[in-house]
Amino acid sequence: MRMKRKMMKKKMRKMMKMMNLMTANQNQIVIQNQIQKDQKKKMMMIKTKMNQIVILKERKLQ
């Protein structure tokens, strides 16, 4: 009986570790996706600013 209980505890611990690893990986993936989205937004902002600057320069030249 005692041995069985020990085995169960060990199994539970292993399961918990696996679960924690899984959730950690998922969280990392979510964070990476968020970072990529932010970078894309920044790139878009930079592009629009550059376009605005170009337009302003062209207007000044005219």
Chart the SSEs and their pairings:
Layout: H1 2-61
Any overview of this molecule?
The protein is an all-alpha fold and 62 residues long. It has one domain. It contains 1 helix and no strands. It starts with a helix and ends with a helix. The mean pLDDT is 88.
Short account of what is shown:
Helices cover 97% and strands 0% of the residues. The protein is built from 1 helix and no strands.
Estimate nothing, just give the exact number of structural domains. 1
Mean pLDDT: 88
Strand content: under 5%
What would you call the shape?
rod-shaped
Count of extended strands = 0
Helix content: over 70%
Distance between the termini: 92 Å
Class by alpha and beta content = mainly alpha
Largest sheet: none
Order of helices and strands: H
Q: Would you identify the regions where 5 or more consecutive residues have pLDDT less than 50? A: none
Protein name: Alternative protein BAZ2B
How would you describe this structure in keywords?
mainly alpha; Alternative protein BAZ2B; 62 residues
